Amino acid sequence: MYKIQANASGTRSIEVSDAHLEAIRKYALFKDLIDSSGFVDGLALEKLKLNARSILESQSGDKSLLDLCLDVIYNSYMKVFGLRGLYALYKEWEQSHPETE
Question: Taking the model in full, what pTM does it have?
C-alpha cells in the first residue's frame, strides 16, 4: 500500500494499492493524459475521470476499475496535486514492476 499526498500542506492523503496501479496499467489510463511538458492540470484530472467513467460504462463488472474509481480517482481529496502524486507514483511503480505477458 502506498500513500500519495493530496494537498500541499500534507494534511490529506490517499491510499493507493498495487491493484489500483495494475488497473491504471490495464486500461492505459495515463496514456496521452499528460502532455509532453509533463504539466498536470485540472483538465488532465477531468479527462482521467471521464475516461474512467466511459470505460466503466462500456465494460460493466470490472471490480478493479470500480475500486480504483471509488478509492482514488473519485476520492473527495483527489485534486490536481493528488493527481501529480499519483502520476509520479505510477511512473516509479511501472519501472519496478515490468509488465509480464
Answer: 0.91
